[in-house]
Design goal:
The longest helix has 26 residues. Helix 4 packs antiparallel against helix 5. The strands form two sheets. A five-stranded mixed sheet has the order 5-6-7-9-8. Strands 1-2-4-3 form a four-stranded antiparallel sheet, sandwiched between helices. Helix content is 41%, strand content 16%. With 393 residues, the chain is of the alpha+beta class.
Length: 393
């Protein structure tokens, strides 16, 4: 999310630290130099929009090299097999370059709205949009989206400050999404406040679900957006002395044309943990609940809503503990299970929104209480949902 020029206070800062830590673990100086050069090349390709197309060329080149070796030792039929597969990969990359990078393809229709779906089916049908059509949203769709933004940013927050979702339109380079041209940029005050980061996830998730209802494609973007470009388009709506960008969400019409790597990447990270790995009855997160047994059945598919909630690379860094008494569920504690200062609380906020929306769809209501900030232990109890009419449980 942060550009190569500035990584100190934004969401990308954590990723930059991880990259440095990874390089520091390389055992020798020559290997460290090579690893550093690879990382720099990767970043350069990423922020020039070419990485999606270069990645498939690596296995193609390996296959051609293996084919050459096979030819040298007299295994002509093996060499021919390698050449066919490598040629097919090259052909796909060429097709992607023409249709996606150069944008030469047949016109595409605007995706249909999802008005016929209930909330839970809407959450299941929503997938990160990795490739967008080249046209901008219609005026009506953009107006509806910005109305949704205005309503949700005005709602009560868990933290002391309002979340800002600023709309920008321009060719921001993002990774791995391609051809995105319209974005919502989540901004909070510069001094770090974990509650505000949670509010970003909670607020933006509600906007994303309404956009999905409209038939719009959305993609949460963390480390893959160039912040220098974002700041340029934000102009005087962003003050680096007072604001920080937490994440970005690309919005627009989903395209059928997507680079091979993007399609492969989307399939690989589409895995979700089972409810027994996400919902527990004890603070140690060791005893799973049976979501199909009372008193948990009152929440219906709300568990599913959280299970399919988006998170950075679908890491699913949130867990929930359902506290029970003789009268039923007295409260739900939401835990972050990684020490991330940005990714984890954003994902936890997304869970809060999904739980809230799911409960409302089931006719259940409650309130959120933010737990004392304290030290960043793991698992970290951040927020508790209390059913309406109950005490602290």
């Amino acid at each position: 999310m942060v550009s190569e020029k500035r990584r100190s206070v934004d969401f990308m800062a954590g990723l930059g630290a991880n990259e440095r830590a990874l390089l520091e673990r390389v055992p020798t100086r020559p290997l460290r130099r090579l690893a550093t050069a690879v990382v720099r090349a990767k970043m350069r390709l990423q922020f020039t929009g070419w990485l999606q197309y270069v990645v498939p060329l690596v296995p193609s080149s390996v296959l051609l090299s293996l084919g050459g070796l096979a030819q040298l030792v007299g295994l002509g039929w093996v060499a021919a097999g390698f050449a066919v597969v490598a040629g097919a990969l090259f052909a796909v990359v060429l097709f992607d370059l023409v249709t996606v990078k150069l944008k030469v393809h047949l016109p595409e229709r605007r995706p249909a709205r999802n008005d016929q779906l209930n909330l839970f089916d809407l959450m299941r049908v929503r997938r990160s949009c990795r490739s967008f059509q080249t046209r901008f949203m219609s005026d009506d769709d953009r107006e509806a989206l910005l109305d949704s933004v205005a309503r949700h940013v005005a709602a009560p927050t868990l933290g002391p400050s309002r979340v800002r979702l600023e709309y920008i339109r321009g060719p921001i380079t993002v990774w791995p999404t391609v051809n995105a041209a319209e974005f919502l940029v989540a901004i909070v005050p510069l001094p770090y406040d974990r509650r505000s980061v949670i509010d970003v996830g909670r607020t933006l998730q509600k906007v994303v679900m309404e956009a999905t209802r409209q038939g719009l494609g959305t993609c949460w973007i963390g480390p893959g957006a160039d912040h220098e470009s974002l700041r340029q388009y934000l102009g005087d709506r962003f003050d680096p002395e007072e604001d920080q960008i937490i994440c970005t969400c690309a919005v627009g019409y989903r395209s059928l044309y997507a680079p091979l790597f993007v399609r492969f990447f989307s399939r690989v990270i589409n895995h979700r943990l089972s409810p027994s790995e996400l919902f527990f009855s004890d603070a140690a997160l060791t005893t799973p609940i049976d979501v199909g047994s009372p008193p948990y059945t009152q929440f219906g598919r709300t568990f599913e809503a959280c299970q399919w909630a988006p998170s950075s690379y679908n890491g699913q860094t949130t867990r929930a503990v359902l506290k029970t008494t003789g009268d039923g569920v007295a409260g739900v504690d939401f835990y972050a299970v990684t020490s991330s200062r940005y990714y984890a609380p954003v994902a936890l906020g997304v869970w809060c929104a999904s739980w809230e929306l799911g409960c409302e769809a089931m006719g259940l209501h409650g309130t959120f209480e933010v737990q004392p900030l304290g030290a960043l232990e793991v698992p970290k109890l951040d927020v508790t949902w209390i059913p309406q009419g109950r005490g602290d449980g």
